[in-house]
Amino acid sequence: MYGGPLRIIEMSGSAAVLGTTHGSRLAEPIRAYLADRLELSGDPYWSGRTAGASTILSLASRTLDHHEAFDSALYAEMSAMASAAGITDAEAVVVGGFTDLIDVVRAEGGPAIEEDDCTAVIDADRGILAQTWDMHASAGEFVTLLKIAPDHGPRAMVQTTAGCLGQIGLNEAGVAVGINNLTSIGKPGVTWPFVVRRVLSQTSLDDAVKVVLDADLAGGHNFLLMGPDGAGCNIEAMPGSRHVTRVDTGVFVHSNHCLDPRTALEEGSRNPGNVESSERRLNNGLTLGTNLDLFFSDPDINRRAETRHDVATCGAVSMSPAKRSMDAVWGLPGDLPWEHFDFG
Fold first, then answer.
1. Which of 46, 69, 101, 111 could form a disulfide with 268 if both were Cys (CB 3.0 to 4.6 A apart)?
2. pLDDT (0 to 100) of residue 112
């Protein structure tokens, strides 16, 4: 269905040039991904309501000012990407910020939740941040690695999908970021790929944490951060609240439910099967987190799909900020080999 040697896009220059490179190199996949995600955004299975494309795009348009206010350079990059790919800025939000956008869709139509994706581990003792990237299996067709050299700020390696500014990454200053989806009742605000990319413009863990804490979020996400000395931080970030856990030693694991009772108050109602899956993956990860071979071979964590819109592991990443290196795989770990990347 998907997977193989990672598709790598090298980008350098101003924000507009970065976006134009992204959009022109991946124009056809971006448009295909948009069509798939527009359909899913209005599917009750994902967003709790039936909604047409015009409704989805109207809600996406309400987030645009929030994105530009959060980071005008990233907004310029997204806009240039959209133009080069032949889509609108609002459509670019659908492509990149899908899981936050459906939180906004849900807020307009009722809290029925089906999201259930990604398992991540911070191993502070070994200085490793690793995770699966789980999503509707059709998204696996669009996995891409961006090598970004901006005019200003550190270079970065970013695992993402066509048309999304960033999902998981590491910069040359030794700042790494990963994510888990959380369910929430959303609002117009900033979607998570903008937060990921702004984190990757920072040069210290403390500055990266501040980016997440200060963001006016559209939907719920869990952000896992690590600095160049191996210290980590987990942030459950909901539209109305944040909870920070420092991870200076040992292993910390997160899946798709809030661990803090305050952020949990913002969670939408969830399918019992998905609740069970998230709790099982968390427990398995706590047992296996010190051995990534076992972690990534666990069948609950490394997930297979039967249909294109089942949740599945579309890729995985393991990052060592101290070494400024990333190992990544497009597809299921074990089925396909890991590839090694660094800033050398």
1. 111
2. 46
In terms of DSSP H, where are the helices of the chain? Answer: 15-25, 27-41, 44-47, 53-61, 64-70, 72-85, 89-96, 98-109, 192-199, 205-214, 261-264, 272-288, 292-297
Decide if pLDDT at 111 tops 50.
Answer: no
pLDDT digits (tens, 9 = 90+) for 21-32: 999 999 999 999
Please choose, from the candidates 220, 221, 255, 249, the residue with its C-alpha nearest in 3D space to the C-alpha of residue 233: 249
Please tell me the distance from the alpha carbon of residue 32 to that of residue 54, in angstroms, as a whole number: 17
pLDDT mean over 231-257: 97
Q: In the chain, what is the straight-line distance between the N-terminal and C-terminal CA atoms, in Å?
A: 33
Dist CA 54 CA 248 (whole Å): 47
Residues 203-235: pLDDT tens digits?
Answer: 999 999 999 999 999 999 999 999 999 999 999
Cβ neighbours around 10 below 10 Å, total: 11
Locus of tokens 């997160």: 254
Nearest to 148 by CA among 131, 160, 134: 160
Measured CA to CA, the distance from residue 92 to residue 291 in angstroms comes to 37
Tell me, rounded to whole angstroms, the distance of Cα 294 from its chain centroid: 23
For 151-215, strand residue ranges (E) read 156-161, 168-171, 176-181
